[in-house]
Amino acid sequence: MNEPKPMSDNAPVSPERRRFIGAATATAAGLTLVPGVMLIEVAHGRPDDQAASSAVRWGMLVDANQCATGCDDCVTACSTENGWTPVAESTHPTQAPQWIRKLELQDPLTQMETNLPMMCQHCAEPPCVDVCPTGASFKRADGIVLVNRHTCIGCRYCMMACPYKARSLVHESLNDTQKADVPRGIGCVESCTFCVQKVDRGDGTTACVEACTAAGHNALVFGDMNDPESEISKRLRELPTKQVRADLNLNLGVRYHGI
Amino acid sequence: MTRLLMVGAIVLTTAAVAWAGMEDDDEPRSGRVPRPVITEPIKGERCVEDEAYMRRNHMKLLDHHRDETVLRGIRTKKYSLKECINCHASEKTGSVATAKEDFCVSCHSYAAVRIDCFDCHSTKPQGPIAKYPPSAEPTHYKHEIDGGAQ
Ligand code: SF4
Ligand code: SF4
User: Fold this and answer.
1) Which residue of A2, A39, A232, B124 pairs with A223 in a disulfide if CB–CB is 3.0 to 4.6 A?
2) Residues 6 or more apart from B121 whose CB is under 8 A from it?
3) Is the model's pTM score more than 0.80?
4) Other CB atoms closer than 10 Å to residue A53's CB: what's the count?
5) What's the pLDDT at A18?
6) Within-domain flag for A94
7) Helical H runs in A47-152?
């Protein structure tokens, strides 16, 4: 990612990459946006030894108008990427971990249906962090809210505090079924990590977004909300979006359009 | 009283059987003391630090590195548990902690130190073990060369 291909290269590129190339070329063309360039590099090719930076705030835009009835590709992709058992296959479905859920809502008056995925909203002011007695629930510099399983005692206060029901406790031993990149285990609380392993690798996207795009629904956009040139920032500027339970004033990292 | 005696007898018998079992299995040993089996890593010729240093201090390095990784997102490979596993997973089981002779378990049961790393962490490298052939270039070498440490 550090050496952008010239614009003339016609190889298929992802929108993320195209945007990056576009921005880099524009800069090379004479705009001396040195801090801007830094920002882009931080966002998409952070070296292994560099800590996550507060110059970046990862976020997601969900376009509920595009989210298809009956589709749960984002949920499947999340469970595959992060190694949690899909609820339908779980031996104890009522207590099975769920990092992302597909909701199909209907307005009782008008019968209008709304589809949307619901997951950790990566609050800028996360109640789950406020209540954690051990400091295990924490917000990383780049806005991703995580559980440090080394210090989580499984008290589940955070599950109670989260207004979005985003967190689950792992009730059962996972017997070495975890992914090498995604440690998780019995007695600890977990939730959506914005695919932190992918973000740190420089993928600049999440498994659910990839799946939604691959299915042609394009209902999800992931990116750096602090970078005015990122696709998500541009879309957020153009589209009216809402935060779920905006009244709580938590400044969410996930914004919904069409709800 | 008879019951107590019986329990005592059972305990003694069990201990004797266990002792006999230890005599029987063919673990390498010096004298009568069973020693841990230390299998050769599946790739690389030496560890990121001295073997003697690693035996005493690997947990400190791992503890420090885990905080850096989880809290700050620093993902250097040198002291990463994932890289330990990539090198030390057994060719037989593909794991560092499944069978009795696997790298982590072998020493830890010898030292009677129970670890819970693998309640959460996978004991296997990502993908098939063949992905890491014995002569594959170890990532931490590159790291060291780049860092100019050697
Ligand atoms: S949505 Fe819930 S789990 Fe996620 S940051 Fe907010 S309070 Fe925490
Ligand atoms: S369950 Fe874990 S992360 Fe949640 S509040 Fe308790 S200690 Fe903190």
Assistant:
1) A232
2) A178, A183, B81, B85
3) no
4) 18
5) 44
6) yes
7) 73-82, 127-131
- pLDDT tens per residue across span A141-192: 999 999 999 999 999 999 999 999 999 999 999 999 999 999 999 999 999 9
Alpha-carbon span B44 to A92, nearest angstrom: 43
Q: How many domains does chain B contain in total?
A: 1
Q: B76 and chain A: CB distance < 8 Å anywhere?
A: yes
Q: What are phi and psi of B137, to 5 degrees?
A: -70, 120
Could you tell me the residue range of the domain that residue A81 belongs to? 58-257
Residue B15 counted as domain residue: no
**Adjacent-strand bridge partners of A113:** A106
Q: What is the CATH number of the domain that holds A223?
A: 3.30.70.20
The finding on whether A157 has its CB within 6 A of some atom of ligand 2 is: yes
Each residue's pLDDT tens digit, A14-24: 444 444 444 44
Asked whether residue B26 is assigned to any structural domain, the reply reads no
The pLDDT, as a whole number, for residue A21 is: 43
Distance of CA A29 to the CA centre of its chain: 33
The answer to whether residue A28 is domain-embedded is no
Ligand 2 atom nearest A148 alpha carbon:
3
Share of chain B above pLDDT 70, in %: 63
Residue B130 within any structural domain of the chain: yes
Look up residue A146 and give its two tokens.
């995580």
pLDDT class for B32, splitting at 50, 70, 90?
Answer: confident
Orientation angle between helical segments B51-72 and B81-88, nearest 10 degrees? 130
**A217: pLDDT strictly greater than 80:** yes
Total domains in the fold of chain A: 1
Q: Which residues of A touch chain B, with CB atoms under 8 Å apart?
A: 46, 48-52, 138, 140-142, 146, 148-150, 173-174, 176, 178-181, 183-188, 196, 200
E strands, chain A, are 58-63, 100-106, 113-119, 137-139, 145-147, 168-169, 189-190, 220-224, 254-257
Q: Which atom of ligand 2 is nearest to the CA of A135?
A: 8
Residue A25 placed within a domain: no
pLDDT, one tens digit per residue, over B93-147 is: 899 999 888 999 999 999 999 999 999 999 999 765 544 444 344 443 333 333 3
- Residue B148 domain flag: no
Structure ipTM over 0.95, yes or no? no
Work out the mean pLDDT of chain B and round it to a whole number. Answer: 74
Q: Report the alpha-carbon distance of residue B48 to residue B1 in Å, rounded.
A: 59
Range of the domain at B137: 34-143
Ligand 1 center–CA A243 separation, angstroms: 13
